[in-house]
From TrEMBL:
The keyword Cell membrane does not apply. PROSITE patterns: RESPONSE_REGULATORY (PS50110). One of its GO terms (cellular component) is cytoplasmic side of plasma membrane. Keywords: ATP-binding, Nucleotide-binding. It comes from the Bacteria. GO terms for molecular function: ATP binding; ATP hydrolysis activity. Residues 5-121 form the Response regulatory domain. Signal peptide: none annotated. The keyword Transmembrane does not apply. It comes from Gracilibacillus oryzae. SUPFAM superfamilies: CheY-like, P-loop containing nucleoside triphosphate hydrolases. This is AAA family ATPase. GO terms for biological process: negative regulation of cell division; phosphorelay signal transduction system.
Amino acid sequence: MEQVKMLLVCDNKQLKSQLHEELLPVYGQVETITSSEVRKEIDRISPQIIIMTDGEKDESSIELIEYIQDEIGDAELPVFIYLSHKANFQLLRDLIRIGVNDFFVLPEELANFLERLERIILTVKERQHSELQPLPSSQAMKKGKGEIISFYSGKGGVGRTLLSTLFAQTIKLESTASVLFIDLNLQYGGAEKYLGVESARSIADLLPVIDELNENHVHNVVMKETYSKMDLLLSPRDAEIAETITEEHIVRLLRTCRRAYDMVVIDLPINMDPITFSALEESEVIHYVLSLDTPAISNYKQVTNLLKRLQMDTEGRMKVIVNRMDRSSELTTADVKEFIVDPIVAKFKEDRKGVQPLINKGEPLRKETKEKKIPTLSKQVRKYVLTQLK
Ligand SMILES: Nc1ncnc2c1ncn2[C@@H]1O[C@H](COP(=O)(O)OP(=O)(O)OP(=O)(O)O)[C@@H](O)[C@H]1O
Ligand SMILES: [Mg+2]
């Protein structure tokens, strides 16, 4: 039977030799690298079991684990064991959320760790032997590793807010995913209009705790959308407060939200400031909303050039959604295709009849999972969302 590939990630020399003393006599060679070597080596080693130890900061360990998970992909996710010198409940919770299988505090739990490792190795070997596929996840969404999907455009009024809110509601209604919608139009807001809520609480309420932000803080500040019950982090709608929010705040916020939800949907303003930029940087998918007219195309070009100059890599992440399509549109999608480099993933028609009355009443475009009559736009978005949920 093949050896189980085990990797030890350890920056502390003393701990490393201590662990080697325990592991080598039993398992022979144990591949050991430092945390800074992980990014370079993980592909080559492709371990089945990874033993992580405390990094310099808790955050850096979490980032590293998330990186490894991304790199290795779903098919053969390794078993993660985390060894820490401190009984840190918050860190433990964060680690469990991102999918770490076991957590031991050294030196007290060394014996438990070794015992558990032995059993894990047996299980991995068994799985290898019977060529069992890894267990499929029971839910449509992978827990604890939320995806960030943002809606952006370089031109206003194209439907970012309408589509991002509707997209988030639809995911919440059509899947088991936990969904958070964030309005990052910090000065003016806007999403509350389409969600039928008053923004009593907002992102600004997280500022006092932003340096130690955790999932509980987020859960305490979010509001609920009445119908779909998705969570909302609304805009403070205040220019002065908006000014105090920095890109570091936003990065911290988004990473925390990513751990707390399966899906985080963001509505972005058109101005490319550090906040918009960092939100785009954090996004797995950027939906660029495009209307069919010359100004929209020229803004799209400006945006893509700017992102290139800022060295942001959007390849494979940027997806174009054509919106407000109708017979009187200045351009056709065929015209547009000549000018854009990113794929068009959806085309939504102008649906004034379906959309406007609901907006006027302050009601969302989706309310229940099984609705008989929904606006044409809601149907089109539903169709697109279902392709995304697979
Ligand atoms: N497919 C559509 N069918 C009908 N109306 C639409 C459609 N898409 C957007 N609209 C309308 O266009 C207007 C602007 O939409 P929205 O506020 O979502 O745009 P935005 O890109 O967020 O604009 P802003 O730059 O102001 O943030 C709204 O009144 C909305 O009802
Ligand atoms: Mg908007």
